[in-house]
Write a structure and sequence with these properties.
6-stranded antiparallel beta sheet, 15 strands
């Protein structure tokens, strides 16, 4: 029989975003019996095996760790069943098979980085910024068959600043999500949360698919505001890019103006010392932080100290 205040929790997550939620559960006194995370992966020049951020945290806090290659593997299912978890919590992990998410009596809950049903998918923070949203938030919900469609448990909203990058939103959101998760688990345990089905109307929904290379290429025929949103929505990773003298130029930070001009979209203007700006269809996009192919990331003035803009 589950003790009222101490459900047995299995936590599933991989990146740094998930660490805040795992830490919040422990700080709140919840009983995390095991952590499930991605297998160690080769990374860096030496292709040395690297542990996920969640595994590093789990090991440092003496939590048992499971790292299944396949989530339907019989040995992993048996290991999960043996834990007799009351609840599973998923934050930035893989898609779970039904045999896994349907296992614990309290179900499996997910922390998602948007106000569902908006921005279902792999990259909700990026797409909210790319689309110029002024508000986003976090949703806790119960997992079911279709991705990000389960019953909503709790939500919390937060503003997005006009110049804020996806990375900055991410760093604020992980704390908001962690706090909402603790509130959600407590509410599930004491029975005070009313599950709310997500609206069935798919017509007005904005989606958040995985980011591909073509998403990152800047098209200067768009408005300056749209390009500004694209750049900050892909910063710091994977980074929006354009060309400078035939080389790839990643842009991480910019500002824009709707100053009229008669330049072709994509035309470059620079004083060679303090600024580089590109012509959009209705104004200029001023580059603040950039990285030229083969170089490191730097502020535009530092870049121009070692680069001659007049070169063809």
């Amino acid at each position: 029989m589950m003790e009222k205040a101490t459900p047995r929790i299995v936590f599933m997550g991989t990146p740094e975003f998930a660490v805040a939620s795992l830490d919040a559960l422990l700080q709140a006194g919840f009983n995390v019996v095991t952590v499930v995370t991605a297998p160690d992966k080769p990374a860096g020049r030496g292709m040395k095996l690297t542990e996920s951020a969640v595994k590093q945290y789990a090991v440092a806090n003496n939590l048992p760790v499971l790292q299944p290659e396949k989530l339907k593997a019989p040995e992993f299912i048996a290991a999960l069943q043996s834990l007799q978890a009351d609840l599973q919590v998923v934050v930035a992990f893989r898609m779970l098979p039904e045999i896994v998410w349907n296992m614990p009596p309290l179900g499996t809950i997910n922390v998602h980085g948007s106000l569902l049903p908006q921005y279902r998918g792999a990259a909700p923070i990026n797409w909210a910024v790319i689309n110029g949203e002024k508000t986003t938030g976090v949703t806790t919900f119960k997992l079911q068959h279709a991705i990000d469609t389960g019953n909503i448990l709790l939500q919390a909203s937060m503003p997005i600043g006009d110049n804020e990058t996806a990375g900055e939103v991410h760093d604020r959101m992980k704390s908001l999500g962690a706090a909402l998760l603790v509130k959600t688990v407590a509410g599930l345990v004491d029975g005070t949360i009313q599950e709310q089905p997500q609206p069935a109307d798919e017509g007005q929904l904005k989606h958040a698919p995985k980011i591909f290379t073509e998403t990152c290429q800047i098209d200067w025929h768009y408005t300056a505001a749209a390009i500004h949103n694209q750049i900050r929505g892909l910063s710091p990773f994977p980074g929006a890019f354009t060309q400078l003298h035939g080389k790839m130029l990643k842009v991480f930070e910019c500002r824009y103006s709707n100053e009229a001009h008669n330049q072709a979209p994509g035309s470059i203007d620079s004083d060679g010392k303090t600024f580089i700006r590109y012509a959009a269809i209705d104004g200029w996009v001023n580059i603040l932080t950039l990285q030229l192919e083969g170089k490191k990331r730097m502020a535009v003035a530092d870049f121009l100290r070692g680069y001659r803009m007049e070169q063809a």
